Amino acid sequence: MPDQVNVNEHANGIRIPLKSTAEGLALFGPQDKFMRLIESKTSAHLFSREAELVIHGEPAEVEWLEQLFDVLLQLIRSGLMLTERDVSYAVELAKEQKADQLLDLLRGEIATTQKGKPIRVKTIGQRHYVSTIRKKDIVFGIGPAGTGKTYLAVVLAVVALKEGQVKRIVLTRPAVEAGESLGFLPGDLQEKVDPYLRPLYDALNDVLGPEQVVKSLERGLIEIAPLAYMRGRTLDDSFIILDEAQNTTPEQMKMFLTRLGFGSKMVITGDVTQIDLPRGKNSGLVEAERILKSIEEIGIVHFTEQDVVRHSLVQKIIMAYSEQA
């Protein structure tokens, strides 16, 4: 375990010793970006003096800031490079006295990219999602853009394939914009389908690398197809991901869910605020959640704007729109 932060109590606040200039730079962020972010979330006063950080403020504010910096310094001392998102999320957790949960989150790897970079869950919601997928055969991941719903599902699918838990990965999404048949678009099937499935390719390329993805597609280890091509099939020993599920009709969703074969796992992801179906058409995702919520073997995980792991502005945009709804 890394050293706990040694905090000396003072009547007018607390002082947190720093081990080196490099540690201070990692804590404060480039051009003190992290420190300014933290200061914007509190009325306490923060300033550095020689090899220490000094905090003055109301006892309740000082208490959560102490926990925050304790956790951030432990992460830095364990070799983790903090990001703005990590610091922002740590602040949210610290205000609820939960910042210590970040230690387990950011230290655990679920996989590595093809470049060797560790892939970790970034929020408590993501951790719950990953553990639910590992435990249950059908899981719904429902929430706003940028929460990692599809990306984490693809990562876990690749891990399952590599470990021999499944024999292939099947990725699909409804091609609503082009119509279910895709018949009127020029080009062969691959050319027609690719634009709608691009996000799935992007996640695969990140984890496996483009060359390995091409080889896996050629060997049939990975199959990427529009939802219409799932009809009439039973998928055994497969990890199946349905993306953009809010754009399925109830009939399509029922058809998809009943494709589940022996030794298979299904993950269905979608954002119910982004439904592009024609007016008057109900969303299969909304209906499936209502009908299936009482089945214990099916996992339903809801993400919130707190789970958004994209640029901090994305979180603010989502919150602004949800307030208008």
SSE order: EEHHEEHHHEEHEHEHHEEHEHEH
What Rg, in angstroms, do the CA atoms define? 23 Å
What is the chains' assembly state? single chain
The CATH architecture assignment of the largest domain turns out to be: 3-Layer(aba) Sandwich
Number of domains: 2
The total beta strand count reads 12
Given this structure, which CATH class of the largest domain is correct? Alpha Beta
CATH fold field value of the largest domain: Rossmann fold
Uncertain spans: 1-11, 177-189
Shape: elongated
The structural class is alpha/beta
Strand content: 15-25%
Helical content (DSSP H or I, runs of 4+): 40-55%
Task: State the end-to-end CA separation.
Answer: 46 Å
Distinct helical segment count: 12
Notes on the protein architecture:
The chain is of the alpha/beta class and 325 residues long. The protein has two domains: 8-107, Ribosomal Protein S8, Chain: A, domain 1, CATH 3.30.1370.10; 111-324, Rossmann fold (3-Layer(aba) Sandwich). The protein is 42% helix and 17% strand. The protein is built from twelve helices and twelve strands. The strands form three sheets. It has a six-stranded parallel beta sheet with strand order 9-8-10-11-7-12, sandwiched between helices. Helix 2 runs parallel beside helix 4 (84-95), helix 6 packs across helix 7 and helix 7 (149-162) packs across helix 8 (189-208). It is elongated, with a radius of gyration of 23 Å.
